[in-house]
Amino acid sequence: MNIDISSSLRRALWESLIGNQPLVLDIGCGDGKIAGYLAKHSKRIFGFDPDIRIIEKASKSNFKNNLHFLVCRGEAICFGPMSFDSILFCQSLHHIPIKYQSRALDEAGSILTVGGRLTIVEPVYQKGSFGEITALYSSERKSKRLAIQAARSLSGNVFSLISEKTIQVKCTCKNF
Questions:
Q1: pTM for the full model?
Q2: For residue range 121-136, what is the model confidence (pLDDT) as tens digits?
Q3: Other Cβ atoms closer than 10 A to 102
Q4: How far apart are CA 13 and CA 129, in angstroms?
């Protein structure tokens, strides 16, 4: 599935950042497209993913001087306290093993600057033909639901909820 980051998702990500972010971390960056987009609007951005092959591909296809990709797990972040102004889990929290999701969110909280912003984007498929198809073939349903629950449980802890909204993102399936 290809995700169009040229419209609704891009706008939502931009709105979630605190203007002119000096330091941004994209946890579970995958192919690096979103980190590449955010690098245009940030002083420095790091993209983490646990898969070395994906990080190598992201590095080759998204070269920018202020963009750095590292092999790292979301629940074992290799930066010290107050290292980032914005941290993003864009469709990645549900890929972290369920037993480590809360730990990953705690790790993110520990490296945010005071007043920093944690943004979590998780797929929620609506009713309709696409939602029905993904429900039939998705082995990630439980982990997605639990990731959303873990994110919602943060409010009132270290974090305060600024907004929770549903955005519609254009998705296309090749050869379907």
A1: 0.77
A2: 877 655 555 555 555 5
A3: 17
A4: 26
